[in-house]
Amino acid sequence: MVTRHSPHAEPTRATIHATIHATIRAMRPDDLDAIVQLDARVAGVARRAYFERRLIALGEGQPTGHTIGLVAEDDATVVGFVMGTLTSGEFGFTEVTALIDSIAVHPGQRHQRIGRQLIESFLAVCGACGARDVYTLVNWNSWEMLRFFDSAGFSLAPTVPLRRRLGEAERTSSHESE
User: Which 3 state secondary structure label does DSSP give 151?
Assistant: First the structure.
């Protein structure tokens, strides 16, 4: 018996998880709409004002204390991005340190090493700017993100994030005195 495969058959797992060699480049102000749309699709909420502020900060300031933004493109379409900040002295760090605050890959483009390409490019830029460590925060139950960062060589940091939720009285009293 001869088995024939239709050209219209569903793609195999190997095809689905093929590696795309996206073009990684510096983020530009004209990437705003694509970044906001991608982030909203991944995070479930639009953060346009946040990304407007971050894009204004791109490349500003000294070699430390500025925003780094990279995008991944496939066929001239933004399919992923990473943003972070180089700091020096914040949070008690005595060396140049990088902080990743946003990363996203289009859901239809995941498992194709685009996130890995973004992280490796981000780490290279940070290293060239003198950073020795890169930090990020991940929700403790975001298993896919935890696996991703683990596969990229991240591990638990020696620092512990602390939080205190402010009550309504604390949030309104500071604004009334201004």
Answer: helix
- pLDDT at residue 8 above 90? no
- The DSSP code for 58 is B
Model confidence, pTM: 0.79
Residue 11, in any domain of the structure: no
For the domain that residue 67 is a member of, what is the CATH number?
3.40.630.30
Report d(CA 165, CA 156) in Å as an integer.
24
Spatial distance between the Cα atoms of 172 and 17, rounded to a whole number of angstroms = 50
Show the tokens assigned to 147. Answer: 């696996």
- Tokens at residue 152, please? 């990229």
Give the mean pLDDT of 31-60: 90
CA neighbor of 69 nearest in space, from 79, 88, 55: 55
Edge-first strand listing for the sheet containing 23-26: 23-26, 67-74, 77-88, 96-105, 133-136
Do 61 and 68 touch, CB atoms closer than 8 A? no
